[in-house]
Write a structure and sequence with these properties.
4-stranded antiparallel sheet, about 0% helix, single chain, Quinoprotein_ADH-like_sf, mainly beta, disordered N terminus, Methylamine Dehydrogenase, Chain H, PKD domain containing protein, Delta_60_rpt
């Protein structure tokens, strides 16, 4: 972006929709193909914010109204939520819930169900994939704000956002529910605080929950924008970094966005917006790796990859690669300030980073940049991508695409 448009663009980006959830689990032995599959359906307007896989059904959430099967001219009305078959790419004709507001987060449920969170009536619902009807025994509605992140771990559902109440219990921004009934778990009371409190993204392993967002404390302990919760105790872990304490541009009082855990849960990667900060230790417009089981104060990232002034919104860690998406033009760009600095590599809209070295991999399918990638979902046969643009890998793939395994 040109310098005269910098502030206007950053203000616009600051108001865009937050990122969907992530959960450790899918390990891939190699980097996916740069040639997208030709089977995925098209989302004809708006933006895709979240993806979930239930069996062989992909559920897609966002802020849109119309979808279409590949090879068809028939437009199907699907306000903010629809599903398609991962194997064939065909849109599910029976799953057509009428969501009256944007969907920001999805999580797979047991028994052919999916959880959806966002800024619609009730804020959080569990839906039957057979017909899109709400599961009425699930009572986890939110009040006073929206849901921006969901993670299911067995019979527990973690919910993050900027709500003040959930299931009629006071739980600012973060709660753990019974995944079947929606009842609040009274034994989990970790409370974010400071500023306009909001959980932006979460990821879970068998014993850790990593959260980021607009907060400065967790249970009163200093945790600027990022923290780790020990799920064996339900308490904030002895893990603290001040890496996100420094300010970026003033229009980004909070600048962390997506995060994802490695398949074995040993490390996680956080992506950010914030504005260019060349030749500094600030983590504005970066992807950064942290070790999950590090302990103590002053934890620093293992590596940092800078875009040089463009936002990253979503990340997926598969073992073979760390996939990042936003409206970036470059990676490996610590010396750039809205420019390609020394060593920068072109990675428009989407890219992949080596998990150990933190350097960009050769994988470079390209994507029309727009606002950016808002959702990744690694699956056994590839990597699903959700965004707001229609060109992926040099081909027409409107807002949803799949990079298959080679």
């Amino acid at each position: 972006m040109r310098a005269r448009n910098l502030i206007a663009t950053f203000v616009s980006a600051a108001m865009v929709i937050p990122i969907g959830p992530a959960q450790a689990g899918i390990r891939q032995a190699q980097v996916v193909s740069a040639n997208p599959s030709g089977r995925t359906p098209h989302v004809l307007d708006g933006i895709v914010n979240a993806l979930a896989l239930v069996g062989d059904t992909v559920v897609v959430g966002g802020e849109f109204s119309l979808v279409r099967n590949v090879g068809s001219t028939t437009e199907l009305r699907r306000p903010n939520l629809f599903a398609f078959d991962l194997r064939t790419g065909r849109i599910d004709p029976g799953f057509a819930p009428r969501m009256d507001g944007p969907v920001f987060a999805l999580a797979s449920g047991a028994g052919g169900t999916v959880y959806a969170g966002g800024a619609f009536t009730r804020g959080l619902v569990r839906l039957d994939l057979a017909d899109g009807a709400p599961v009425r025994s699930f009572t986890g509605a939110t009040y006073g704000g929206e849901v921006s992140s969901l993670v299911r771990r067995g019979d527990q559902l973690y919910v993050g956002g900027d709500f003040t109440q959930i299931a009629r219990a006071t739980r600012p921004a973060l709660a753990r529910l019974n995944a079947t009934t929606g009842a609040v778990d009274p034994t989990f009371t970790v409370t974010p605080g400071g500023g306009e409190t909001k959980i932006t993204a979460m990821a879970a392993s068998h014993d850790r929950l990593v959260v980021d967002g607009s907060f400065t404390t967790l249970d009163g302990l200093p945790r600027p924008q990022l923290g780790v919760i020990d799920l064996t105790t339900g308490k904030v872990a002895d893990w603290r970094t001040d890496a996100y304490a420094p300010e970026c541009l003033a229009v980004f009082p909070s600048y962390v966005r997506g995060l994802d855990l490695s398949p074995d849960g040993s490390y996680f990667v956080v992506v950010t917006t914030g504005g260019p900060a060349p030749r500094t230790r600030k983590l504005c417009d970066t992807a950064a790796r942290f070790e999950t089981y590090a302990k103590g104060e002053g934890i620093r990232p293992t590596w940092v990859n800078h875009t040089g002034g463009d936002s990253l919104y979503s990340v997926a860690v598969t073992g073979a690669a760390v996939y990042v998406g936003g409206h970036q033009r470059w990676l490996d760009n610590p010396y750039g300030s809205d420019t390609a600095g020394q060593g920068a590599v072109s990675r428009p809209g989407i890219g992949a980073i080596h998990p150990s070295t933190g350097k960009a991999l050769d994988w470079n399918p390209t994507r029309a940049r727009g606002i950016g990638v808002k959702a990744f979902l690694p699956v056994k046969n590839g990597l699903l991508v959700g965004s707001d643009t229609t060109r992926l890998g040099g081909e027409y793939h409107a807002r949803v695409g799949l990079f298959p395994m080679p």
